[in-house]
Design a protein that fits this description.
The protein has a domain at 1-15 and 42-105. Strand 2 (38-48) and strand 3 (53-61) form a beta hairpin. The two termini are 27 Å apart. Helices cover 8% and strands 42% of the residues. The chain has one helix spanning 28-36; strands at 7-13, 38-48, 53-61, 71-77, 83-89, 98-104. By secondary structure, the chain is mainly β.
């Protein structure tokens, strides 16, 4: 989610992460698996249109080391303008060589009547 006030929020989840056998009483292993399969952060963002790079500046994150970091995201827009696409080489994820994320515009901001 990107807001007009320069703030953003992202939640990424492995769709194949297993459910807990007992929803109210997960085991330690189930908790670790759930944490490993989910990542979220929110904060400000800056756009460098000339370089086609959006930088995320997390204030909060599920990974403590992400807070206060700068996360550059090379971006492009689809021809129709309703898709925002990030892609690049992965530096921080062992076993991953690259990433690609696509965001779809779902609506426009409501307009207030005078």
């Amino acid at each position: 989610m990107y807001a007009l006030d320069g703030r953003m929020c992202a939640q990424l989840m492995n769709p194949d992460r297993p459910a807990w056998k007992e929803a109210r009483h997960p085991t330690d292993a189930e908790k670790i698996s759930a944490f490993d399969g989910f990542f979220a952060y929110c904060g400000k963002y800056e756009v460098d249109e000339a370089k086609h790079v959006m930088t995320h500046l997390p204030d909060v994150a599920s990974w403590p080391g992400f807070v206060g970091s700068k996360q550059p995201r090379p971006y492009t827009f689809s021809d129709s303008g309703d898709l925002l696409m990030f892609s690049g080489k992965e530096r921080d994820e062992p076993g991953a060589e690259s990433y690609s994320i696509t965001w779809r515009k779902v609506g426009s901001a409501p307009r207030l009547s005078p």
